[in-house]
Amino acid sequence: MDEQSAAYWKRNVKLVTTLLIIWFVVSYGFGILFVDVMNNIKIAGFELGFWFAQQGSIYVFVALIFVYVSKMNKLTVNSTFAKTTDVGENSGSGETDKWILLPLPISSSA
Fold first, then answer.
1. Which of 11, 42, 96, 106 has its CA 20 to 30 A from that of 1?
2. Which of 21-30, 69-78, 101-110 has the highest mean pLDDT?
3. How is the chain split into domains, by residue range?
4. With contact defined as beta carbons under 8 Å apart, do 25 and 57 qualify?
5. pLDDT tens digit string along 47-95?
């Protein structure tokens, strides 16, 4: 695996790990471990610990899916891979799209 691909996958694994940790804390931590503490807080008449155990963790999970899609789209666009199509004389000949490697920088600040 070349250096640019390794950097892409390293950022992908870091993102997945971060999102899984958030999901674990919200679903297991808020819904089971800290439920007694969170039940002291009431929102619309419901104890917050009960709410997280019943539906809050599901909402967070769905939100994390959208965060993952957004971040991966941004990572893919900013990565070294860009798609091009053959629009020259071979256009319409049934050839498949070609992928080229572009030298785009990957910043470590994101």
1. 96
2. 21-30
3. 3-80
4. no
5. 888 888 888 888 999 999 999 998 988 888 777 554 443 444 555 555 5
Long-range contacts of 4-9 (CB under 8 A, 24+ apart): 4/79, 4/80, 4/101, 4/106, 5/80, 7/106, 8/75, 8/79, 8/80, 8/81, 8/106
As given in the structure block, the two tokens for residue 69 are: 């899609």
Q: Residue written as tokens 């967070």?
A: 60
pTM of this structure: 0.64
Contact indicator for 72, 15 with CB cutoff of 8 Å? yes
CA neighbor of 99 nearest in space, from 76, 81, 72, 79: 81
